[in-house]
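Study the following:
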Amino acid sequence: MPTITVIARLVARKDSIEAVKSELLKLIAPTRNEQGCIEYLLHQDNDDLAVFVFYEIWESLASLEKHTRTDHYRDYVTAVDGIIEAKTVHKMTRVA
C-alpha cells in the first residue's frame, strides 16, 4: 500500500500569527507519536510569517484519517477557529 503525502498550508490572520504558531507547535509531539506517522514537519514562510506549511508522510490514508479524530487534532481545530484566513490540504501519492 502506498504512503500518503500531505501538504497542508495555513494562513493566519496577521494579528494572530503567534497564537496560530503556538497551536501548530502543540500538534507536533503527539502527532509524531501516532501509529502511522512517518514524517510531520512544520515550516513558516520567511517572507510572510502568517503562512505555515506542514509536510507530512503517513503509512496510509486510514492512519491520516485516524489522526484527524485525535484529541490533540480536535483541540487544534477548536483553538484556531476564527484566527486563520485560509487552509488548503493536498493529499497525494508519490509517483516517482
